[in-house]
Amino acid sequence: MILTGPEIAAAAQDGRLTISPFEPEQVNPNSYNVRLGPRLLTYTAPVIDAHRANPTTAVEIGEAGYVLQPGELYLGHTLEQVGSDTFVPLLFGRSSVGRLGLFVEITAPIGDIGFHGQWTLMLSPIRPLRVYAGMKIGQIMFFVSSGDIDLYAGKYQAAEGPQPSRYWRDAEPVEAVAP
């Protein structure tokens, strides 16, 4: 069961979910619009290695915006901190942003019950695209869970800003393979 817009607003008011800052005009019929935060990360190594920490570079999105380039993966973040100990959040790109050729969060839209923080967004443009901090970039929906709840306590808890992959922390050791 998905929460309706009025129920999202009521749950944000009574604490069953957290959206901070909360703006009533960002409530949709069954979702809440989230905005792009001011910082982006890109990986700098020519090959990203799943079994190691990868170097990144940070970019602040200025007042004039920032042009995303095709073939590059950008890690952005939501301006809002979002979470719930009750509901299952799912984040998707907005259709109006998709119509500009920007893929947002297509591989990992589901959040864990108990996660609270800014969401890292995987941004991948089809064509060069200028984006702006504060633009509505995605929408988050909340679903009612069934069964016992085991709250998230993972490596991305309380995230602020974009978070690079920490997959390597849990990866099984493997023998290195030459490129």
TrEMBL record:
<keyword id="KW-0378">Hydrolase</keyword>
<dbReference type="InterPro" id="IPR011962">
    <property type="entry name" value="dCTP_deaminase"/>
</dbReference>
<dbReference type="Pfam" id="PF22769">
    <property type="entry name" value="DCD"/>
</dbReference>
<dbReference type="GO" id="GO:0008829">
    <property type="term" value="F:dCTP deaminase activity"/>
</dbReference>
<dbReference type="InterPro" id="IPR033704">
    <property type="entry name" value="dUTPase_trimeric"/>
</dbReference>
<dbReference type="InterPro" id="IPR036157">
    <property type="entry name" value="dUTPase-like_sf"/>
</dbReference>
<protein>
    <submittedName>
        <fullName>dCTP deaminase</fullName>
    </submittedName>
</protein>
<dbReference type="GO" id="GO:0006229">
    <property type="term" value="P:dUTP biosynthetic process"/>
</dbReference>
<dbReference type="GO" id="GO:0015949">
    <property type="term" value="P:nucleobase-containing small molecule interconversion"/>
</dbReference>
<keyword id="KW-0546">Nucleotide metabolism</keyword>
